[in-house]
């Protein structure tokens, strides 16, 4: 029997934050784009790695579906930079958990995980400072391998938490993940193509001596080819104490861009010069749709003011058209298009050669026969 505890709204808030604290674990739904499926090999947690997500002001997540362009160029950064460490399973143990092989350290919590070839499960966690422990009798399936665009799964979970060893909280619920969109992600300093969005929904109910609390957490995570972890995460949390008609709503967003791991193909011009397309640094370029039949759009971001030249080549490498010649341009996003009467191109393979100050970026695109 639990005695000697006074219930209050603050206790509700504290309990809700403890049980459903949003950590990097909630970011790790798996996604894919087109023919690329993210796997444990490419997207599992790396032992001993620390990840810093930068908080941004909340933005709406946008639409689902194929061939989306998610424009987050106007995001504003805050001063908060949460840090999460992925560690091998520690010597620390938690009663009721025997098969943990991975630990996650985040904001004072140590999460006990089980990572395998097909799945990542959250088994429980402990926070010694807050004297809080939690063990899942039915673990949460946080990650399922492989998981491609259009895939979905649901998983039930249940557990018991103790605060100060006496205050018991029982909870049950279900977790659903759906790869609901793919396309191009526009960021203030980066354009990322081949992006897939995963929408996860965690619904649960907490039962404690003070009453019941309904929880609904909706999370949108954008994964990209060549990135191990999500580039952008948006979360909406609704807590409804004792069937209240007015839920408490918390909205957060964060980004993690310095993680590109993919190898970039090179382009060799006819004069023998090898040019490596830029993906990070002072500029980034995106072409869409590619291939195209009528018009292709190009977008690029400049970190600083600089002169810009754009040349159009055919597949033989011969100079075709000069679009912009050392035009002074300000920092920020710029865009244009190729097609129509102004660039009457026959079907074939072409290259756009961008010169940003001293940096050269070459992008390949394909013109289809007009419909």
How would you briefly describe this protein structure?
This protein has two helices and 25 strands. By secondary structure, it is mainly beta. The chain has two domains: 9-255; 267-367, Macroglobulin (MG2) domain (Immunoglobulin-like), CATH 2.60.40.
> Considering DSSP H and I runs of 4 or more, what fraction of the residues is helical?
under 10%
Percent of residues in beta strands?
over 45%
Discrete helix count: 2
Query: How many strand units?
Result: 25
Q: What report would you give on this structure?
A:
This protein has 371 residues and is mainly β. The chain folds into two domains: 9-255; 267-367, Macroglobulin (MG2) domain (Immunoglobulin-like). The chain contains two helices and 25 strands. The protein has helices at 9-19, 40-43; strands at residues 32-33, 36-37, 49-52, 54-56, 65-71, 83-88, 102-106, 109-115, 119-127, 132-144, 152-163, 167-187, 190-208, 211-224, 232-241, 248-255, 267-268, 274-275, 283-288, 295-302, 306-314, 319-329, 332-339, 348-356, 359-367. The strands form five sheets. Strands 3, 4, 5, 6, 7, 8, 9, 10, 11, 12, 13, 14, 15 and 16 form a 14-stranded mixed beta sheet that branches. Strands 22-21-24-25 form a four-stranded antiparallel beta sheet, with no helix packed on it. A three-stranded antiparallel beta sheet has the order 19-20-23, with no helix packed on it. It is elongated. 32% of the residues are buried. Residues 1-6, 12-18, 20-35 and 260-282 have low confidence and may be disordered.
